[in-house]
Write a structure and sequence with these properties.
This protein is mainly α. The protein is 79% helix and 0% strand.
């Protein structure tokens, strides 16, 4: 009985499909792991940002009772100087 060339071709196609499936599976697993890592990083950044915002709010409230901290807040752009306008918000409102 002779070996059919069709069987050899089909076997080669099956091997290529299996190899392609393995490559796609590895890419999916790698991308999913990377996504989970990025999501963890984003969650950490959001938590730090929220904690920093709470700290800023507390410092601004503290400055109402103790205005000696105002120069530090004004220097860092957290609080505006009396009589100053916020140009960045005016620019954003005009757009």
């Amino acid at each position: 009985m002779k070996n059919s060339p069709l069987a050899t071709v089909l076997l080669a196609l099956l091997a290529c499909a299996a190899l392609g499936s393995l490559i796609l599976c590895w890419m999916y697993i790698h991308t999913t792991r990377q996504l989970r890592t990025y999501q963890g990083n984003v969650a950490g950044i959001q938590q730090r940002q929220q904690a920093f915002q709470f700290l800023i709010n507390d410092v601004v409230e503290y400055s109402k009772r103790n205005p000696q901290i105002d120069p530090i807040l004004e220097k860092n752009g957290i609080k505006l100087k009396p009589g100053a306008t916020n140009n960045s918000s005016a620019k954003n409102a005009s757009k």
